[in-house]
Amino acid sequence: MIPVPSGSRVWLATGHTDMRKGFDGLAALVQDHLHHDPFSG
Questions:
Q1: Residue 29 CB neighbour total at 10 angstroms
Q2: Distance between CA 26 and CA 6 in Å, rounded?
Q3: What is the DSSP string of 5-27?
Q4: How far is CA 40 from CA 8, 21, 30, 35, in A?
Q5: Distance (Å, rounded) from C-alpha 38 to C-alpha 26?
Q6: Under a CB-based contact definition with an 8 Å cutoff, are residues 14 and 34 in contact?
Q7: How far apart are CA 23 and CA 15, in angstroms?
Q8: Are 41 and 16 in contact (CB under 8 A)?
Q9: What is the pLDDT of residues 2-39, one digit of tens each?
Q10: What pTM was estimated for this model as a whole?
Q11: What DSSP state is assigned to residue 30?
Q12: With contact defined as beta carbons under 8 Å apart, do 31 and 37 qualify?
């Protein structure tokens, strides 16, 4: 399990993606599709 601090927001998106993209590639997908900054806390 991944511990999530209380008060944190967790955004989920359905679908599939290529996990070989690495963290930077996945973060770019979040910015493009969910219109949220994954580094904003």
A1: 15
A2: 23
A3: -TT-------S---GGGHHHHHH
A4: 11, 21, 12, 12
A5: 9
A6: no
A7: 17
A8: no
A9: 888 888 888 777 888 888 988 888 888 888 888 878 77
A10: 0.52
A11: H
A12: yes
